[in-house]
Amino acid sequence: MPLPFEQGRVIDEGDSRQWEGRQSPNSAPLGTTLDSENDVNVQTIRHRFCPLRWPASAVLICLVLIPPLLFADTVKQGTAESLMQQGAQAYQRGAFEEALNNWRAAASRYHETGSTDGESRALVSAAQATQALGQSTQAIQYLELALALAQKGSDHAWHATVLDQIGRAYLTARQLDPAAQYLAQAEEVARRQPSAAVSAAILNDLGVLHALKREDKEALEAFTDCVAVSREAGLQMLAVNSRVNAARISLRLGNPNASRQWLDEALDQLKDLPVSRDKAVGFVNIGLVYESLLPALPEIRKPLLLRSAGALQEAIGISEQLKDSRTLSYALGYMGHLYELEARTEDALLLTRRAIFAAQSVDAPESLYRWQWQLARLLASMDQIDESLAAYRQAAATLQPIRFEVSQAAAEASLSNQESIKPLFFEFADLLLQRASRTEDQKIAEGYLLAARDAVEAFKAAELRDYFKDGCVDAIRSRLTTFDRLSPDTAVIYPILFPKRIELLVTLPSGFYRTAVPIAIETVTQEVRDFRRRVEKRTTREYLPHAKQLYDWLIRPIEGQLKQEHITTLVVVPDGVLRTIPMAALHDGESFVIQKFAVAITPGITLTDPKPLNREKVRFLATGLTKSVQGFPALPYVAEEVDSIHNLYGGDQLLDQDFLAPRLEQELREGRYGILHIATHGKFSTDVNDSFLLTFDGKLTMSKLDQLIGLFRFREDPLELLALSACQTGVGDDRAALGLAGVAIKAGARSALATLWFINDEASSALISEFYRQLRNPSVSKAVAMQRAQIKLLGDRVYQHPAYWSPFLLLNNWL
């Protein structure tokens, strides 16, 4: 084992760095990988010095935004200059609200004296504190006010700085297009009054922009240039952090030795800088990136481990000296994580509990939930299951108000695609399942099973909020009730993909049932990908072995219970990669699932409103394109599809040149439609901003669709069905499939009908027409109507291949 760590200067001894100075109160280091999104989470200091970090919204979420320029209530005694200094001192202690109050007061004082330059600078500082408090929109408003003032002056360097700050704020919010625009403007203005300091800051932010766009080579070039210019400008802290950023990018480019060299240089430079919060945060980030190198450089694991823990110990010492509990919580927590991974549980527990106390002392939920989660893992490793469950519950409760911001940060972190909050909920669920298996009382055990399902359900809701980047999901969930008891012929299948098994939780009319299938998630993922690729090939039966294998894993283990209870409808809540495949096309060796069961899909049981369709009052609006527009092929059978709907239900139509977004908006405002059918090209991608439906003159984004159909969301009679014909998602794109399932929720519709891939225009028209024909029967549910339509195509020699009929998914309400 490594020797105990000590704080002090860094010396080299071969490949390892030992730490000399005062004895650490804690023992030796341990560790292995931390995901790189953890690297960026602690950086709550000036954005210039910590660009590759979680959005500031993940730092501390304050749900009540402070109106701009209402400074009178918070003005303190003192000059504007003294207020600016007090704000800077508070910020360095991590007291962001105090810093904000001082800087807003300073802006007010500058405004009173007519100092536009001072007011602009105070507003930029206020924006910095506001972002640290999680108020990104408010921060941008402050910066826009600062920009208006800066534009009045002749200081081009400051003007460029404010533009850069706005670009950086948009980077923090992961809005890359406006970020790129502001950074380009900053570059242009900076040329009028060259400044090495301004140029270095812009270069660093351009590197972040490239990193977020996965343009790694360009990002590394920008960070390398930033280091050179920062040295020229004497911005040593910026040079340190640019080196750390370059280290992260080098690792992502597959060059761990270069990454290590960047870190060594950053560490050598950082140790000579004066004590500050910036320095403490710099040590934490260096320690985390050293740790991330462990899997890539196993031959020098011990030296890397020493450097990682040594840097964290330096951060602990500086944070204690500055009384900065916020940064201290991260340094202690990550040091505890090193001990955890080296199975030094007692030391890990001590450090983790200290981290929890530090986070609680400054009301920092963004770090507190991590250490509560870490405590839960440690207790679970000691087989203290009930204590561990209590800690998991605390972590989930702490995360609840901020999970959208945290999940967004994790999913879109500049240097990582790893999900950060999913393991928390799935570990919690796994432990609840373990607890259920140890419980003899069946009713109590069922309670643990339901709690496990609810833990995964909480993550699914957060995932949808993340995809759509707003809180609409919670607004919908607040009006819905969980369905735990169903009609006598319906079962809900809730598969959960754990690393080494599939857990099948099944809600049956008679109660709750659970079974596990021992199979690694990597094997499941590969099988799903193979099935998805092959089932789209209309000329082969290559899909069949994969369809059978997936049936054996997902349906066969519960087949006996389904038969015993005479189940005819399956409601599936797919997890992860399972969202990308049509469950209807799974095969038992003799027949498809759809030939035995009607199938509906829902992204979550608390996201579904299972109420029957009122066919007597429903009013139809059918829209679509038949002509080739904007480079997309014609859809000639859409006219036949729309005519069929009109013959069955009457209603209104918008075709081709009439299918325009303004016209659609007008119709939705004036007509109380129950079903909206859109037959057009569409695409759902990983990024909701890249998802669209094609109109005659443009593309209807998901946010625009939400605006158009948002009228239905809170009215007494919501949109019953949103049908999207001729749309598609990417092969294997889990998040795109999530968007496909969530679009009905986003639009405020009880049900949605959509397709996983683009299918034959004529086949689509035939299936859709039969679906609506079956739906006229009041005794037939939507799920059964879709089943009958799919079986009709399956019986057609031309369209019997599942590529034609299986991609149609009925989403959410199946009744």
Automatic annotation (TrEMBL):
SUPFAM superfamilies: TPR-like. Pfam families: ANAPC5, CHAT, TPR_12. Residues 9-20 have a biased composition (Basic and acidic residues). Residues 201-233, 310-338 form the Anaphase-promoting complex subunit domain. Residues 546-810 form the CHAT domain. It comes from the Bacteria. InterPro entries: Apc5_dom, CHAT_dom, TPR-like_helical_dom_sf, TPR_rpt. Residues 1-35 are annotated as: Disordered. Coiled coil: none annotated. Gene3D superfamilies: Tetratricopeptide repeat domain. Residues 21-35 have a biased composition (Polar residues). This is Uncharacterized protein. It comes from Nitrospira japonica.
